[in-house]
Structure formats: C-alpha cells, structure tokens
Amino acid sequence: MTCETHYLQKLGIHMETSSKEQANAYKKRDKKHSQKSEEAIKKIEVPTDKIVCGRNEVPSRCGTCNSQLMIGGPIWHDKIHNIDFVKQIHDKCETDVGKKFGTVDRIKGVLGGIIDEDELSHKPLSFDLSQICSNLKVINPTSREIISGFTSLNYKLAQTYYDPTLWKTDAPPEAIYDIIKAYKKQLCEKEKTDFFLNIHKESPMMTILQKPLEIEPDFNMEKLEQNKKLRKYFVAPEANWGPKARATGGKDKK
Ligand SMILES: [Zn+2]
User: How far, in Å, from the CA of 7 to the mean position of ligand 1?
Assistant: First the structure.
C-alpha cells in the first residue's frame, strides 16, 4: 500500500538570456567601471541559451504520509505535445475527409483529451485516484464528483487521455489526499461512523487519515460544465475482438 505523492527534482533548468538582459546584469555587477561595461556590452550581441543546475526542491520525507522517499526517473518533464498541431488535426476530423475514417470519434476523443490536458502540460506525472480511494478505503467518486471537488477549491483537474483512472492536477499531493478524505467524511455513509475502518494501524494511510482536515470541497457544484461525451478510450470494435486462431494454411479444411 503505497502513497501516490511524488516530487520533481529538476536536473537542469533551461534559461534563455537575451543580450539586453545579459547587458543589464553586467551593468549591475560592474557599476564602478562604466566605461569597461559599455565595451563589454557592445560585445554581447547574440542571445544565448544556458542550462543551470536545478535546486533541490524535494523535502526529506513525504509531506503527505511522512514515509521515506524513493528515487525514480529520470523522466521528460517539459511540454510533450505541439498543441497547435493537435488542434489542427482535431479540426480536420470535422471535415468530410476526416469523417471518412470509421474511428473518427475516437481520434477526436484522444485529441480532445490532449487539448483538455494542455493547461496541465507542466505536470508530467499523474495520480491514480481510484488507487488513492482504494488505499484510503473510500468508494470511488464519480468523475463529476471528482471534478466538482477539485474545481470548488480552484484546482485544475484533467483526466489523462491514455488511462481513465489517471488524472493530472495542479493541486499539491496533500490537497489531493484531503479531497478524497473529505469525500469519505461527507458522502460515504458507512465510513462516516468509522473513519478508520479496515485501515492498518501502522500504515502510511493511517498517518494520512489521522491528519486534521481543513478543507471543505463541494462535490456537487451546480455550475459544473457537462462532461463531453466523446469516446476517449479504446473500445473493442466487435464482440470477442482480439487475436484469432493461428493460420493453418488450409490444412484443417481437408
Ligand atoms: Zn507519502
């Protein structure tokens, strides 16, 4: 039973420095020798790229369950889609050429999912909310309830286009766990009376559940936009679809 909290430690940060910024920085550093500065500034003409070492932003222990952290990666953490290109292809699906494809709804769904997720493109990793619910012994909320809970606290939330159980959010991990805890407290009839039912005393989940809850998300926001009914995930095209029996070269037909 592991906690889903994760932190990113950037190995390097890409900095773009324009010649003007560089020149101003030089001026600041070299106030006394203005003549020398002017000469140096003249030499700085071309904008430069540089990578600087990432600072340590990771706490020594997990901020949610206080367990020891494990190291994983490295991973690519920057933008991964060219969103203008994705939007162009999405628009193409609406044309007569696009509509010829039998799988056009699914293509639109996947592309729409990528577009929806774009506002969280700076978040490379996702959270398995059903796993979190299972660990905290909470009944899975509906997608609408989950979206409502996060939105009511002004957090962004998007279901990933590659797995319906995985969600990306800008909420910190502590807040994610608190939202699920709040759901347990507000809407799970059985668990309301025994909040720690079936939770092991020594487990990280007990630590999480014992922390005081300071937020009150609204899981039934009336103003919430209706979910798009696009087919985002793979659906088998026919019954018993899948690999057929191996080819026999007609031998069995004798
Ligand atoms: Zn943890």
Answer: 10
Q: Could you give the 3-state DSSP secondary structure of residue 85?
A: helix
| Residue 204 CA, ligand 1 centroid: distance in Å | 7
Strand ranges inside 23-113, DSSP E: 48-53
- CA 137–ligand 1 middle distance (angstroms): 16
**pLDDT value at position 155?**
95
Predicted confidence (pLDDT) per residue in 190-237, tens digit: 776 778 888 888 889 999 999 999 889 999 877 666 554 555 665 555
Residue 158 pairs with which residues in a beta bridge?
Answer: 168
Check the CA dihedral 121-111-140-75 and report its sign. Answer: negative
Q: Higher pLDDT residue, 170 or 105?
A: 170
Start-to-end C-alpha separation, the chain: 56
3 CA to centre of ligand 1 in angstroms? 4
Instruction: Show the tokens assigned to 26.
Output: 């030089």
Q: How far is the CA of 113 from the centre of ligand 1 (A)?
A: 28
CATH node for 83-210: 3.30.56.70
Beta strands in the chain (DSSP E): 12-17, 48-53, 127-128, 157-159, 166-169
Where exactly does CATH 3.30.56.70 map onto the chain?
Answer: 83-210
* Distance, CA of 161 to CA of 107 (rounded, Å): 11
Ligand 1 midpoint to CA 232 (Å) = 31
* Gap from CA of 241 to ligand 1 centroid (Å): 40
Predicted TM-score (pTM) above 0.90? no
